Each structure stands twice: as structure tokens, then as C-alpha cells.
Amino acid sequence: MADDKNSRPARSAGHRALPKSEATRQKIIEAAAAVLAERGYAGTKLSDIGARAGMQAGSLYYHFDDRDDIVDQVLQRSIRGVYERVRGAVEALPPNSGELVCLQTAISEHLTVILESSDVSSAALRLLGQLPPESQRKYRNDQRTYGDYWHDIIVAGQASGSIRGDIDPVRLRLFIIGQLNWVSEWPKSAIDSRENVHREAMALIMGGVTGPVG
Amino acid sequence: MADDKNSRPARSAGHRALPKSEATRQKIIEAAAAVLAERGYAGTKLSDIGARAGMQAGSLYYHFDDRDDIVDQVLQRSIRGVYERVRGAVEALPPNSGELVCLQTAISEHLTVILESSDVSSAALRLLGQLPPESQRKYRNDQRTYGDYWHDIIVAGQASGSIRGDIDPVRLRLFIIGQLNWVSEWPKSAIDSRENVHREAMALIMGGVTGPVG
DNA sequence: GTCTATACGACGATAGAC
DNA sequence: GTCTATCGTCGTATAGAC
Q1: What's the DSSP call for residue B62?
Q2: Percentages of chain A per state (helix, strand, coil), in multiples of 5
Q3: Cα pseudo-dihedral B150, B156, B162, B166, rounded to 10
Q4: Chain A: closest CA distance from residue B90 (Å)
Q5: Do the beta carbons of residue A93 and residue A105 sit within 8 Å?
Q6: Burial class of B187 by CB neighbour count within 10 A (0 to 12, 13 to 18, 19+)
Q7: Which residues of A touch B207 (CB under 8 A)?
Q8: Tens of pLDDT along chain A (214 residues)?
């Protein structure tokens, strides 16, 4: 649990929210996410990250320990970022909203994150599978936390009857999230407007291909 | 269009279907697919492929021109393989089967391929996105052929009213195929039996989370 | 903080023995 | 057909100037 970098900057007295070094870290992480998303884990070279962040490869070592440290930050932020966004959206619902509304909100927000940050947030999704197995373990907890959050919504919905009960809740979640995640692989030409993607995704997940009335 | 390897072996007179060299090619391609699926494009080393195929890295060059040639074969077989399987299944239906049945058959067969060859066939799906953009062009045709096949089914179904018409047919296809493709990313623990996955995927895609009767 | 230069290892690819 | 040995290249990481 040695973690000297995440609470940076630990300087004398906090005054500004984004000191220069932190802003640069941000820029590097975003650059790395972009490269990771399009080249994959092993295909991401420090020179690419540096180029996109406007500096030389060697300069990255001032801000990060090594290559994996950068990848690490991208993944952490992505996974936790999606979770916080979705949880925030669901918790913003009026109290006693039905489970179906919670599910719809989670779907909508998850999709929003994918559509708006097609780099930073969707990079993680495609990356987890290509990491060396040991590295994957580090993110299992964050992944499971997010999965559990969905799981609870789905199970509650099935108990109340608002969500069909003849599909295993784990697989139901995996089907839904998988369908949404794959949007990050779409050709850009298929996304004419985010509104359409949202509306149609919701319509399909809710009512299926035969439509809301069977 | 120089393509001297694909029609191998071009030996004196055909006698056996699988001469040794062709069998070895097969084994290498399968090994490569396995490594590609778990390490990604750039993460796949010739030494890994060789190890899994039971030979040294240098020996691979007897069967293939270079690294990209191997990746190429994996992708070609995967994309075309799924297409042929799905088309075969749909064409095996009794004539004048409804479009909805065609769609269901396509879904079922696509999922079957993913579940049974979680290496060879699913490797391609995740790979296309991480290839250097120039390389991607080579597979666009095969991809489009497969997409068009689904497209025709969906459009016909929408015309006849058996498939809801309020979702863009291109996105409807992408949603469905994406949901199925993502199954290759599932933790193995989520697949207790292929039958269950099939049944539930079909139920969800057909009727949505609210169930077949709304 | 960022640069250039360099040490070092890893991987793709080739050559030649068997 | 497959092996071992080797070369060349590229990418990570470090060192030290600015």
C-alpha cells in the first residue's frame, strides 16, 4: 500500500487547486489514455504519450515512476470515475424512485460517460483484458465494487417484479454493461447524435427488438 | 494482391486434405489466436506463439513471412469464419422463415461461435480496434460483408413489422452484436452453462428487461 | 521541469547447422 | 522442418546539462 504519488502535491500549504505539476500530470494521463485506447496496452510507447502531451519521453519520469505507473493512473481514474458518475446520478434521483428508474439512470449515465470521454473512460474497459494477469488483480476490487452496485439494483428490481426474474442477475448486468461498453468500439459514423444513441439503447434494453408491447 | 501463401500447399497432386505443413500452420494460427486474445496485438511475442505451438520462435518463419502475416491469418479466419457459420445457420432454416426467426438464428449462431472458440474467433473482435489504422483497412471489406448480412435481415424485419422500427437498423445491429461480443470478456465464472447464456441472451434481446409482455 | 545522450534489455528477423 | 546463434532495431529507464 505504498502510495506516495496519489496525494500529490503534499506541499507546505494548500492554496491553489491545480498547481502546475498536477496540471501536467493530468495532461499526461489524458494523453496516455488516448494512446492506450487506440494502441492497446503493450502498443503504448512512452514516446507516443510524450508526443501527445507535448514533451519528450524522458520527461515523463519526473511525474511518474515508470510506464506502469502511468497506465495505473489511467485505469484507476477510469474505473472509479464511471462508478462515481453512475452512483452520483442514481443518488440524485428523488427518494423512493422505483428500481427500474434506478436501472435506467445507471444505464443512461454509464452510456454518457462512454460517449463523452471515449478516450479516458473507455480505455480502461478494453484494457483490463490485455493486462498481464498479475496486474489485473489490482483492479479487481474497484471492478467488483462497481459490479456490486449494479447487482444490488438489479436484484432489488427482480424482487419487486419490475425487472424480469428469469435471467440470472449477474449475467443480466454483464449483458447490459457489455452492450453499452461496445459503443466505444463503434465507427464514429454510427453516432449521428448522442440523443439518438441514448434513446435507442434504452428502448432496446427495456423492450427488446420486438418492442415495448411485444 | 500478391498472395502466395493462402492457397498452400500447391504441390504436385492433391492426395491428402491435411499434409503435415498445413496442419502445423493450423496449430500456429490457433496458438497465435490464443496469445492475441489474452495479450493484445502488440503484446503478442513470437516466442509466446512458438511456445504454445511447441516450437522455437525462429521456426515460425518457415511457415509465415513475418509476424504480421500470422496475425493476418488469424483475423481473416476469424471474421470470415463467423460470417460463414452464421450464414450457414440462417440458410439452413426452412424456406420462408420469418425475419424474426432469421435474426434469432443469427444471434444464436454468433453467440455459439464466441462461446465455443473463445480464442480463435473472439480474438479478432478485440483486435481490430488496436491495429495500426493502415492495417485495419484490409479487413474492412470482410467486416462490411458480415455487417451487411445482418443489416438486410434487420431491415427486412422492420419492413414486415416483426422487428421494431423505431431504432436505426445500423445501431440495432451494433447493439446486438456488441452485447454478444462482450461475452468473450466475461469472467469464466459467469458462464455456468452455454444453454443458460443462450437462453438468457435471447430472452433479453427479444423482450428486454421488462420481459416479453412488458 | 524539460531537455539530450546513453546504457541496457527485449524482440523481430536472418543464417546456417542438423 | 526445426534448431541454435546472431544481428539490428526499438523502447524503457537513467544521468546529467540547462
Answers
A1: G
A2: 70, 0, 30
A3: 80
A4: 18
A5: yes
A6: exposed
A7: 164, 207-208, 210, 214
A8: 444 444 444 444 444 566 668 999 999 999 999 999 888 899 999 999 999 999 999 999 999 999 999 999 999 999 999 999 999 999 999 999 999 999 999 999 999 999 987 667 767 887 887 787 778 888 999 999 999 999 999 999 999 999 999 999 999 999 999 999 999 889 899 999 999 999 999 999 999 999 875 5
CA nearest to nucleotide D6 C1': residue: B58
**Within 10 Å of residue A159's Cβ, how many Cβ atoms?**
11
CA A114 to each of CA A146, A155, A173: distance values in angstroms, whole numbers, following the listed order: 15, 24, 17
Residue A100 C-alpha cell reads as 427500474
What count of CB pairs under 8 Å joins A to B? 160
Residue A135 and residue A47 in contact, taking contact as beta carbons nearer than 8 Å: no
The span from the CA of A114 to the CA of A125, in Å, is 10
The pLDDT of residue A189 is 94
Chain B residues 17-76 within 7 Å (CB) of strand D: 19-21, 24, 50, 54-59, 62-63
For residue B67, give the nucleotide whose C1' atom is nearest its CA: C12
B40, B178, B200: residue with CB nearest A168: B200
Q: How far is the alpha carbon of B8 from chain A, nearest alpha carbon, in Å?
A: 32
CA–CA gap between residue B62 and residue B75 (Å, rounded): 20
- Please, which residues 61-120 of chain B have a Cβ atom closer than 8 Å to chain A? 100, 103
- Counted residue by residue, chain B has a size of 214
Residue B50, CA distances (Å) to A126, A133, B37, B75 in order = 26, 20, 15, 18
User: Cell 440470472 identifies what position?
Assistant: A168
The C-alpha atoms of residue B116 and residue B139 are separated, in whole angstroms, by: 23
Residue among B181, B190, B212 whose CB faces A214 most closely:
B212
Name the minimum distance, in Å, from the CA of A4 to any CA of chain B: 29
pLDDT of B169 strictly over 50: yes
Touching check for A214 and chain B: CB below 8 Å? yes
Residue of B167, B176, B214 lying closest to A214 (CB–CB):
B214
The per-residue pLDDT for range B9-65, each reduced to its tens digit, is 444 444 456 666 899 999 999 999 999 988 889 999 999 999 999 999 999 999 999
